[in-house]
Design brief:
two-stranded antiparallel sheet, 21% strand, DNA-binding
Chain lengths: 230, 230
Amino acid sequence: MILTLREGRLHVLVVERGEAPFRGMPALPGGFLNHDREEILDAAHRELNEETALASNWVHLEQLAVYGDSDRDPRGRVISVAHLAIAPGLPDPLAGTDATDASWVPAEAVLSGEVELAFDHRRIATDGIEHARTKLEFSSLATAFCEEEFTIAELQQVYEAVWGTKLDTRNFYRKVQAAKGFIIPVGTDRRSTGGRPARLYRAGPKTVLFPPLIQPTPSATEENPNGEEE
Amino acid sequence: MILTLREGRLHVLVVERGEAPFRGMPALPGGFLNHDREEILDAAHRELNEETALASNWVHLEQLAVYGDSDRDPRGRVISVAHLAIAPGLPDPLAGTDATDASWVPAEAVLSGEVELAFDHRRIATDGIEHARTKLEFSSLATAFCEEEFTIAELQQVYEAVWGTKLDTRNFYRKVQAAKGFIIPVGTDRRSTGGRPARLYRAGPKTVLFPPLIQPTPSATEENPNGEEE
DNA sequence: CCCCTTCTTGTGAAGTTGACAATAACTGAG
DNA sequence: CTCAGTTATTGTCAACTTCACAAGAAGGGG
């Protein structure tokens, strides 16, 4: 599953299936091992490249889980190793790719079921998005959604888009800078669209965030309605 | 990989290989799908039962990751779906099991390389133990190491054994009880070995812990040696 | 020069964590 | 019954962290 940020919202790449089963229905991009010697991670990189023509050394790519239910593909037993790829915002046309019938759909549309996916791909997408949401808290994964150089405001937009929440700007600045090794200042500024120039940062060496950036709990106010205690 | 607690320490179940390759060397228990229709999770349960004769509805069992490097098995391409099983302390002899050549080895011995495992099983074991350590922080996984009814002191021993640290008893009591839905009191006590009876608890409905129980950082004191600041 | 836009920063109150030791409840021996 | 031994359980204060909250800084354009 390939995730990116477009217009401040989380999007998933889907391809329209050209063959049965589920012909014409959107599905997560994927494919089979080319030969017996192909490494699984290499195959994931290859598929990623075929779908997005992305310089694959730039994108984050990790293994998610295995989906192997015997009835998940009507053609027979297919065991899929789901991977999660994350890339900075990509252009809409996806020009020059094999799959011209590929498109970005908002993550919300997949989660809500508004867009139906082939096979058990909705389940996979749900798991993957949940994985990304959780991992934003404890890892530097958010930088994978950004270009090489980014501003703190952009990084905040990543968190807000993936979590679907609004964050306090001042506290966000303090926290990301407190997590040493998360982001490191480049030194130069970026001329913005008519405002104060923003400092640029690059992803730091640390992949685990400490202290973590905890997702605000929507149930914080309704947590203890009438103060029940032992 | 099957983990348990024995004598207050984390142990891994290994079986001595009866055939080449790696004949006579310890390996993680495992096997192949029986037939084309067998579900992966069912197969994991089956293997677990064959090795430990455990009532498999009692043990925690979850998927870990896929290991599919083309050269990880000299016989040819083998793709393994690693699973993590966790059970309360089991008797030593492992009587009545298929694998009479099975034994518990301390996790430390595997991590340090003191005990060498066949294939890439040391890598798998390392990943699995690390997974368990992390998951103790944010989930109720620790209760899987305990019997149905357990005391807070026993639960603390789980954390200390898996993390390899000592924890403050009073703070531990406060934290586990603050995480609503983690453990729920049974009401009865257990007559202990000559001390004050301990209250018994069962695992609560919540699987995610909030607030989490953070692993103490050994580097807390040496974090900022000479206070370097911007 | 002024207004607009965007980025950046500080403070005080409230809550949380971590270090620390005394007491409660039972068992078994005398 | 009493006492010693053993294990389980609980409270407090200081240090730290988090949250809520608004004003100023730096550039662009008219």
